[in-house]
Inverse folding.
């Protein structure tokens, strides 16, 4: 708590010393000298407090208190352009036709009126075609993100969406999953790459979906089980009906790795004042059978893409970031 300066008359006793002061030489009272000295000290102190050149606080600030630091920039809830980076989910893979991208239904920058992508909701149909760009790539991992963000920065977008990490966990074997330390290093490099080209761009980071929940939802479909045998996300979907301890341990390892990836996304994003993490909203979302592609029962369908767009729009336009 700050202490205030108080002038004291007389000998400095509480309430002042009301006894008559003794006369000094020249007929002056010693109490008068004390009052004059106190007034002079207070005047000098006030002058120094308002003089920044002598090491005091800036004029108008209180003694002993520093000037307020600059606040982080306010989040713009209505950005005028959107660029997307990430993996097959943002490319709309298997949402329209089998084993093919369908970027028009992308949750981030798609133009399909039924999906109503984030760009459509923010910008409207005409502007979304002119001021949204999709740099995501099917099969991309976090190590691919710096290059994608370098491309996105060239568009000078006001908002960049990121959804990546599923392919870092979806490998042929659990040993091949991207180490968490490498995942962090690549994401930090990605943010530096973006800031080098687009220092004022806002960033919306989606959490990695819960791959174990996707396995649980799709494993009951006979077609899905056959498609999964082709090698889609083998670490989670391989031997989908095997309920042995070994298989369960493998799936739990993938689950825990995704949780760790999301912790990295949250932590690195929190260090950038223009970045907003979704608070785990996509990871927590429970996709139904209708919200998964009926070609692979793993990627989002058009309905699933629309749900992702809803989550993103809600978080981007919120007054406060999700917790």
């Amino acid at each position: 708590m700050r202490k205030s300066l108080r002038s004291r008359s007389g000998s400095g006793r509480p309430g002042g010393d009301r006894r008559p002061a003794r006369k000094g030489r020249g007929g002056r009272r010693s109490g008068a000298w004390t009052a004059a000295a106190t007034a002079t000290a207070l005047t000098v102190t006030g002058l120094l407090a308002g003089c920044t050149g002598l090491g005091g606080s800036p004029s108008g600030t209180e003694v002993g208190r520093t000037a307020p630091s600059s606040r982080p920039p306010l989040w713009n809830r209505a950005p005028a352009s959107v660029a997307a980076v990430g993996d097959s989910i943002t490319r709309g893979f298997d949402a329209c036709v089998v084993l093919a991208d369908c970027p028009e239904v992308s949750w981030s920058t798609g133009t399909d009126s039924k999906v109503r992508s984030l760009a459509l909701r923010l910008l409207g149909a005409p502007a979304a075609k002119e001021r949204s760009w999709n740099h995501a790539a099917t099969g991309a991992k976090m190590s691919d993100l710096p290059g994608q963000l370098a491309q996105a920065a060239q568009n000078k977008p006001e908002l960049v969406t990121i959804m990546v990490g599923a392919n870092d966990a979806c490998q042929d074997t659990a040993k091949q999953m991207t180490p968490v330390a490498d995942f962090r290093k690549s994401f930090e490099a990605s943010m530096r790459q973006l800031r080098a080209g687009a220092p004022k761009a806002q960033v919306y980071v989606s959490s990695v979906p819960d791959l174990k929940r996707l396995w649980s939802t799709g494993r009951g479909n006979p077609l899905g089980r056959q498609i999964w045998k082709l090698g889609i996300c083998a670490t989670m979907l391989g031997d989908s009906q095997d309920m042995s301890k070994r298989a369960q341990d493998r799936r739990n390892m993938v689950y825990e790795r995704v949780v760790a990836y999301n912790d990295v996304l949250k932590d690195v994003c929190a260090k950038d004042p223009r970045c907003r993490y979704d608070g785990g909203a996509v990871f927590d979302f429970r996709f139904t059978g209708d919200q998964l592609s009926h070609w692979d029962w793993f990627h989002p369908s058009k309905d699933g893409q629309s749900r992702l767009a809803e989550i993103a729009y809600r978080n981007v336009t919120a007054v406060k970031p999700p917790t």
